[in-house]
Specification:
The protein is built from 22 helices and 19 strands. By secondary structure, it is α/β, with parallel strands linked by helices. The strands form four sheets. Strands 9, 10, 11, 12, 13, 14, 15, 16 and 17 form a nine-stranded mixed sheet that branches. Strands 1-7-6-5-8 form a five-stranded parallel sheet, with helices on one face. The longest helix has 26 residues. It is elongated and about 105 Å long. 34% of the residues are buried.
């Protein structure tokens, strides 16, 4: 014992002279020497080390040592007395005040039959630094895990991490898990279910209000929780589980029943749909039916809608009839048939017009959604709901080179999607913007007069949205492309023997180019003149590239290409003159040279 007293005296002298690390080394060396042969002495030195650390205000390390002593049963009464008197008692009033305040503030979310007093809570918290605590099992006198409630130091969540679905924690759980969840994603909801008030202990934390906000709920009975979700069908079900393994089968059974109920007409809530998958379809009911059946395997209900707009089909109508029957048992399905054919492309506009979701994802009926990745898009849309108006989802072929990136509204967003969205599937629009900007009428008015809008109305719509909100390019696969039967919009080019889409001929590309320029001129007040000039050059290069694609399919160059290319070049030069930009002869020469270079570049590629 004299040796231990001498050890403490030497350690204090070293600490007082500014050599704390050397003082701690004295303790550690003595512990190492005693651990094998003098176990009792080693334990006592640890006890004294903890007290020394406490006196030196190294509270975190002191608690770690006391935690070890309690786990090994050494001087339990003395250790408990020190911990409770030094850490709990001085903070009791503050923690109790926070507990009472939070119980009152969040009383609508604390759905427990018994009102628990602070003194009856099973866990308290040992503060060791700002926003850092150890959980203390007050009933069993044990120090448990460390909690860090300050700003998150964790790495970014991986692309595949599900931060959208809410979580149910039942009976027992890692006490740090809810804090970790909330630090990773503030909006992710947490539901606690426990008969004992272990979940209520969080309310005594000073950081509770700022960390958890309102997206959590506490229950003490499974029946109460089930009734809550039966009534509040607008709230997504907790599809992630943590807690007692023996409860997991019960949870699975309940969640399946709740999901099935929400898919009925009685249980459907259409007021908080986040994402509509909208399929415009004509004469391909078998395709649309297969697609919707695929999406029915999604284990989402109130969050999604599957909308099919039938453009007054006269072939393959059996599939549409079956869709109507399916909608009777699965209320996520919405089927609409035009009373009379309104013309090509109007069904796409009608999808956006009728979508119940905050966002609407357009989908060709031959393409299929990657079901396992839908959660990622849901969390993306929820995260950027207030700032993003358009999201481009990636496919296996189209938009597969998307980088995960957000582009600011205006010129930056506009140039990113200008005539780059050739494919319909995967394009996600904010539906409230579609209505607020009266885009249905805007598209209908220009469909016949503007060849670009006729062929690429979805791209024109995204371009218009880019002036109002940011756009997001997403690199996670949302859809996989199917095989287009391609019988409706195909025609044979004379002398080629090849089928070319009617909107992809030289003449149509020339007209689409002019239509795109018309849109630029319509929006010229929204961008700078210099930017507009840049856009003319970019679409010129785009249409030349499309000519090259045409050549690869048709296998020849005819006078149609030469005329179309010459006309486009002349048209572009004429439009740049009309911009009225005061430019020098050198600048004009550079612009014309750039256009001629573009022409020459693709002429060379197209050479026989």
């Amino acid at each position: 014992m004299k040796e231990i007293k001498l050890l403490i005296e030497n350690a204090k002298k070293l600490s007082q002279s500014g050599h704390l690390e050397q003082a701690l080394a004295l303790f550690m060396d003595e512990i190492s020497e005693c651990e094998e042969s003098q176990v009792e002495d080693a334990a006592e030195i640890k006890f004294q080390l903890a007290y020394f650390l406490f006196e030196e205000r190294c509270y975190d390390n002191a608690v770690i040592v006391w935690k070890d002593l309690l786990e090994n049963g050494y001087r339990t009464k003395d250790t408990v007395s020190i911990v409770e008197e030094a850490f709990l008692a001085p903070n009791d009033k503050e923690f109790e005040a926070f507990y009472q305040k939070n119980c009152l503030k969040y009383q609508m979310q604390i759905m427990v039959e018994k009102k628990w007093a602070y003194k009856d809570l099973p866990y308290r918290f040992i503060p060791v630094a700002d926003h850092i605590y150890y959980v203390y099992d007050f009933e069993n006198k044990r120090i448990l895990q460390k909690l860090e409630l300050g700003p998150s130091q964790e790495e970014e969540a991986s692309d595949k991490e599900n931060l959208y679905d809410s979580v149910l924690l039942w009976d027992s759980w890692d006490y740090g898990l809810p804090i970790q969840i909330k630090k990773r994603e503030q909006n992710q909801s947490i539901y606690f279910l426990s008969k004992i008030p272990s979940h209520l202990c969080y309310l005594q934390l000073p950081e509770f209000d700022g960390l958890f906000h309102a997206s959590w709920y506490m229950f003490d009975a499974a029946k109460t929780l089930q009734e809550f979700f039966h009534i509040h069908t607008e709230i997504p079900l907790p599809r992630l589980y943590g807690g007692s393994e023996e409860r997991f089968p019960i949870y699975q059974d309940w969640i399946q029943q709740a999901h099935e109920y929400r898919c009925t007409k009685e249980g459907r809530n259409n007021n908080r749909v986040l994402l509509t998958f909208g399929i415009p379809s004509f004469n391909r009911g078998h395709r649309a039916l297969k697609n919707v059946k695929h999406m029915q395997n999604l284990f989402f209900d109130s969050e999604v809608e599957f909308l099919v707009v039938d453009n007054c089909s006269i072939e393959n109508v059996e599939g549409y009839q079956e869709l109507e029957r399916l909608a009777e048992s699965d209320s996520r399905i919405t089927y609409y048939r035009f009373p009379e054919n309104p013309g090509e492309n109007n069904s796409t506009y009608e999808v956006l017009n009728r979508a119940a979701g905050t966002f609407c994802c357009l989908l060709s009926d031959e393409d299929f959604i990657y079901l396992d990745n839908v959660y990622y898009y849901l969390q993306l849309l929820r995260k950027y709901e207030e700032t993003v108006g358009f999201v481009c989802g990636a496919g296996a072929v189209y938009y597969e080179d998307n980088e995960e990136q957000i582009f600011s509204k205006g010129e930056e967003a506009f140039v990113r999607i200008m005539w780059r969205l050739n494919y319909l599937s995967g394009l996600i629009f904010k539906t409230s913007m579609f209505h607020d900007l009266n885009m249905y009428q805007w598209l209908v008015e220009r469909r016949e007069s503007n060849p670009f809008v006729y062929a690429y109305g979805h791209n024109a719509l995204a371009m218009r949205f880019s002036f109002e909100r940011d756009i997001y390019m997403c690199g996670i696969n949302l859809f996989r492309e199917g095989k287009d039967e391609g019988t409706v919009h195909m025609k044979e080019l004379d002398g080629t023997g090849q089928n070319i889409l009617s909107y992809a001929t030289y003449e149509q590309r020339r007209l689409q180019f002019q239509g795109c320029i018309q849109l630029f001129n319509e929006w010229k007040e929204r961008v700078s003149i210099r930017f507009l000039q840049k856009c003319y050059l970019l679409v010129l290069k785009k249409v030349m590239n499309l000519f090259y694609v045409h050549k690869k399919v048709s296998g020849n160059i005819d006078i149609g290409f030469q005329e179309a290319a010459d006309n486009i070049l002349a048209y572009a030069i004429e439009e740049i003159y009309r911009l009225g930009i005061p430019i020098s002869n050198e600048e004009l020469y550079a612009i014309i040279t750039a256009m001629i270079d573009i022409h020459a570049e693709f002429s060379e590629l197209l050479a026989p």
